[in-house]
Structures are given as structure tokens and as C-alpha cells.
Amino acid sequence: MALTVWAIAVLSLLYWSYLYLDYGVRMPAEPQQATGRIYPYAYKGRIVYVSGPERRRIRTAGWVFVGSMAAVVITFLLVGRSSSDRAA
Question: For a designed S-S bond to 48, which of 5, 19, 27, 79 qualifies (C-beta 3.0 to 4.6 A apart)?
């Protein structure tokens, strides 16, 4: 179970990183009404503009990563505690 939780955390980190880097390269530096990219997104000290679904996608990916890292910490604490209980 611990390995599965860790794998989900790593995959969510990779996806979030991909989106972050992709948005920095691909997104316009000025709002584009025609494409719907009107929402500002801070990227490495500058502002790029994304659409509503793109903004939700990167925010969701970030929250999934944070949640999965919390699950990793909790899982490893529980696994570590249960293995030390058995050793005693």
C-alpha cells in the first residue's frame, strides 16, 4: 500500500511539473480574448495568461500533489509505527 501511495505522489508531481513547464513555454504573455486565455497565472516572476479550464487543470494537479504527499507522510508514519510495534 505504501508503494502505491508513493507512486501516485510521484506521478502527480510529474504531471504538475509538466503542466507548469508547458504553461511557461506555451502560454501568451498578454491576454487573448479569442482563445479565452484571459486569466493571469504567475510563472517564474512573470505573468502568463491561461483559459479557465487550463487554470483549473493546473490548480487541481497542484492540490492532488499536495494531498498525495500528505497521504505519503501519513502512510509511512503508520507503516513505521506498526512495524516498530511488532519488533518490540
Answer: 27
